Amino acid sequence: MTTPGDRLDRGGYDLCIRNGRIVTGGRIVEGDLAVHDGRIAAIGEVPQSCAREIDAAGRWVLPGGIDSHCHVEQRSGMGMMCADDFYSATVSAAFGGTTTIIPFAAQHRGASVPEVLADYAARAASKAVIDYGFHLILANPDEATLRHDLPQAIRDGITSLKVYMTYDRMKLDDAQLLDVLALAGQEGALVMVHAENHDMIKWLAQRLLDRGHAAPKFHGVAHDPLAESEAAYRAIALARLVDVPILIVHVAGGDTVEVIRNAQTLGAKVLAESCPQYLFLTAQDMDRAGLEGAKYCCSPPPRDADAQEAIWRGLIDGTVQTYSSDHAPYRFDETGKLPKGEATTFKDMANGVPGIELRMPLLFSEGFLKGRIDIHQFVALTATNHARLYGLAPRKGEISLGADADIALWNPDREVRISAGMLHDNAGYTPYEGRTLRGWPEVVLSRGRVVIEDGQLHAERGSGAYLRRAAPEITQRDPQGAVAGRPHGRVLKALIGLDAAKGAA
Ligand code: DUC
Ligand code: ZN
Ligand code: ZN
Predict the structure, then answer these.
(1) Cα 128 to Cα 451: distance, rounded to the nearest angstrom
(2) What is the pTM of this model?
(3) Which domain holds residue 121?
(4) What is the tens place of the pLDDT at every residue in 229-276?
(5) Which ligand neighbours the alpha carbon of 301 most closely?
(6) For residue 106, what is the domain's CATH number?
(7) Cα of 352 to ligand 1 centre, how many Å?
């Protein structure tokens, strides 16, 4: 039980949140929380008065969310620029209860990793209003990158990378994936994989287009669930071959959840992420009049009600550890969804949906308040697990003494009818238009600063801080150096020279 003694500092505090329902360390504490110098300084009873007091009666006091998958000021694999910059994306995130984002610094072929990282760092520093780190998207794992640039980036705190198994401009073949995985294993980075079988999609898409099936709904047909589950299985096999953890991003299909669960049962270090679009949208949403369905096209695409149930089960039983937005905002015009106007086919349009602001409200309303998950699962899926997996714990993602005071006060009774006009991103539409959600993050703190209150932003452009991340916990090597579930793994690793990897026993 937290007592009045649970505090870092007995002096006057900068801010106190009073009478809230605080979720901390797997418990619910009814009481107060004090903030000092941007950090959580006391939890429980706070008898002192504070420079600023906030009454949280009837409110849940939760860690601010961490969105570990969002695309900001990024050119996509298809070459299109997304609609949000680091200002609009972080403002939108904060209004939705998120206080940390980890977007991507995206390498395209021909660009060097240091150039890419410097470019994203400069753009974010002058605009972000909440804290942020970066994953690196790696499209060109050549010798120089693998030997020098990538290890340097990882040591500089970019401790996770995303690789693609599809998209002509981004895709790595299996040998390249093995190179990246082996290097990540040596350096203690986590590899995130966009798992879709490129040739299956390309082959299906061409046959569909040849027959005149060009409408947005055919995006869902071309990106068959088997393309996803086959690639996930293959990515996991590649990762197991070199005994390196892997995280499958944006899991959409029920078969893919099953593939991941089976691998985990075998002892493989496989992690997974899913997103609102796979819980709250289906393929039917892409089947709307004209090109309207393009607003719901992302990759992998939303599937059906059975797949939604499978994703819920995966989130509930721990097969899927993180719930991210995969915010990929493209406007419904020639810059994104409609590059060829009325003649745009499903193959031409940018893939992605906006969701950075509604990610948490959707899960709070439809997951927590409707009883599918409890409040601790909500916190783990939206914040704590992201911090642990991406090297930000215990500073971020939890309410604990000494952690950054990144906090959201949720009013569980407030009903909000969703419309694009109330949101703060630049997509210009929302796939969740017209839905009514219950529960809303009314006050949001970032490092103790009140950044959202009374529906207003109170943070300066550029006041967010860059987060140099530690190694993800999962990438710490198994002390036995064995490949989980594969007894001959040690012999193989000795033969291929991976047993001498840094950090191995
Ligand atoms: N992959 C993503 O991660 N986001 C949007 C589209 C895509 O292909
Ligand atoms: Zn992806
Ligand atoms: Zn994405």
Answers:
(1) 12
(2) 0.95
(3) 63-389
(4) 999 999 999 999 999 999 999 999 999 999 999 999 999 999 999 999
(5) 1
(6) 3.20.20.140
(7) 6
